[in-house]
Amino acid sequence: MVPTEILDQILGLLHSDGDYATLETCSVVFPQLVDRHLYSQIAFYSPSKNFPTYTTIDDSGTYPVNPTKFALILINHPHVANYVRIIHIIVLCHFESYTQLLPAIASILPHLPRIEFFAVRASTGLFWPSLDSRFSIAVRNCIRMPSIKDVAIFHIRGFPLNALYNCKNLRRLLLYGDDESRGAKDVPASPYHRLRCLRVDASYCTELKLTRIVSWMKLQTLSLYILGSYGDFSKFHTLIKACSATLVNLEFQYRFACELIFRDLTRILLKVFYATVQTTQT
Amino acid sequence: MPVSQELLLPFLERITFHTPVFILSEGRFFSSLPFLMFIQCISSPSPIRLTLHLEFNFRFRSPTLVPLDTVWSDLTNVLALPIFRYPIELQVAQKNHTGQSVSPVEAISLLKGISDVAKSLEGGKLIITGDSMA
What we know:
The complex is a heterodimer of chains A (282) and B (134). Chain A contains nine helices and nine strands. The longest helix of chain A has 25 residues, at 257-281. With 282 residues, chain A is α/β, with parallel strands linked by helices. In chain A, helix 1 (4-16) packs parallel to helix 3 and helix 2 (20-29) runs antiparallel to helix 3. With 134 residues, chain B is α/β, with parallel strands linked by helices. Chain B has a six-stranded mixed β-sheet. Chain B has a two-stranded parallel sheet with strand order 1-4. In chain B, strand 2 and strand 3 (29-31) form a beta hairpin. The N and C termini of chain B lie far apart (36 Å). At the A-B interface, helix 8, strand 9 and helix 9 of A face strand 1 and strand 2 of B.
């Protein structure tokens, strides 16, 4: 029998390599040991005819799971809930996402007590108020849990910044995408004592509410994600000034729209290529 | 590009600028480096380290991008600002590994082809760091 420590190392390597098929097989024999790796970092997605696999996530070691199946896993193996540390939710713009994925996730989130990193990604610009209300409430409650340290919101328009109110242990916040909710009146004062790193899309920089929130932070790292025209730099001035008293690192991440289009196109072509190869092999 | 009003950042230690760089088949560069002019408005009582992280990318042409070789001389003025008392760190990365991309070694030799870059490297004002050294 291989010592548990060595077995644990091997499972960790399988996980970091993204070999989930092997881990799933191992899980039948050593469920407690394997599940700790397999479910530590998961991505909820909705299977679809148009999108047979989930949208690619850059971070390796993220296990893609269908939320409906995961709900059954939680019923049969409740210990799995304690292993989940990182969650990515991928919302694609199709009917199944709205009708099946979001309500299923809303029912799961309250049962995961140890989430540290929480990310919601939309395939294209998605309007937050149009999402299922049960899902919105579940996300708000989830990101306020004491265990949450990182929150990332990608390409979701109108995400309310007041959802971040009372996220006492939040250390890093990432906001990519447009925020259409204007005005600073509805953002209550919140201390954000532990928030040290903010990564934000240039489109948020004109947002008065964000500037007001930043002034309450003791922000050490500000990372500005720039996509678009040269005029964007003028937007940063107020935001940088708001955190000037504590700022240690300032990052500018520039991207061109054409580059993102090329990247997405490459991913689609690769998926088609692999699907064709698999069909030919079978 | 208009320079904004002064920004005093008393505890700032590092500025990192990540940008893709596009190389055309004829060897000309296109990038967003002119944006760096913005940091002229930043002031700090302590010296700041500046890192330029260039990601060399597929060959692509866009009318909104500015040729790198024509703007580096302007950049030299920015790099010579008194807040940058440390050498400027230049990191070169390969964005993807397709045949369309440029290897870091190839990218560095292309950069050295720009006389201002070569001069800064020789003068020790610019140093190449990170994976791009491989």
